[in-house]
Structure formats: structure tokens, C-alpha cells
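Notebook entry, structure prediction.
Reason for the run: the old model in the group folder had no record of what sequence produced it. Starting over properly, with the input documented here first.
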Amino acid sequence: MRKKPTVLNIKTIATTNFFNIEEMDIKFSNGEKRIYERLKPFENGAVLIVPMLDDETVLMIYEYSGGTDKYELVLTKGKIDDNEILVEAANRELIEEIGFGANKLTFIKKMTIAPSYQSSITYIVLAQDLYKAKAQGDEPELLEVVTFRMADLENLVYNEHLTEARSIAALYMARDMINNQ
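New structure, fully documented this time:
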């Protein structure tokens, strides 16, 4: 039976604009001790949205990604601001990034990225019944919005520009949710 280890101490060892890097002193139930390091964001989590023009057409964006130093094909995403609820953040990001809002926003799943050393949480949201809307966001450049057919999902996930695991997983979950509606 799993028994959660005891956290003996947590201390910040470095800080950036986006992360706290923390060192955790851990003691396992068998007496073993280890030091873990983790990235701890300052934010309230993030949303990743699957915006559907209709039951067959998803809107995606090409966005420059510093980690890979190239333009990646991704779904709309962004952080949840203080005092903002999940669906408000999802709708705000849609309006800022792709020029659409949604009348129907459905929470799909909470996901993590590399949970062994990152504590970031992303909430996946399906956006349907879209309407045109625009607002100034925090993007450094205009994002290229492109459409894809969900019927072609098997080919889309092998697109060389679509490498982000959260976007790929979200597309499959959204497809299944739409098919079961």
C-alpha cells in the first residue's frame, strides 16, 4: 500500500519571472531520505482550450515557443488570473488569442506536465457554440489561427509542428466527448 512520504523541509533555491525552484527534503516510509527539486509556478494554474467551430472543426494556432525555439501548432492556452474562475479564464484566452468567445465551455480534465519535478496544473476545456469577439491580450505578435477537421485527427497528431503532449491529449479527449454528446 502506498504511503505518502513526509516532507521534512521545503526551501526556495532560485526564483525567475515564472517559477520558484524549490528543494524538498523527503523521508519515505522505509526511512530512506532524498532531496527533490521542483519547479513551482507563481500562478493559479492554466487553461488549455479546444475551440470547436462546429462538431468537426477545431481552431488551432501557430505560436512561437521559446523552449523549442520554433513555431509550434498548439491549442489556445493561458494562465488563470487571480480571482478568475476556470471558465472565465478559458473564454478570456479564446477572445484574446483567436478572436472568438464561447457560449458553451465544458471542463474535461485536469492535467500535469512532468509531475516528478513540476507542479503546474492545466485544466482542459472544450469550447463550443463560438461567437466572434476580440480583446487585447499579452501575445507579442498576432497569432496565426488555422482550422483542422477532427475526422483527420489521426494525421493531425503526426504533424511535425504539433509536438505538445497536452494539446494532443486534449484533442483526443474533446473528440471523444463530442462523439458522446
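Summary: The two ends are 38 Å apart (CA to CA).
The old model has been moved to the deprecated folder.
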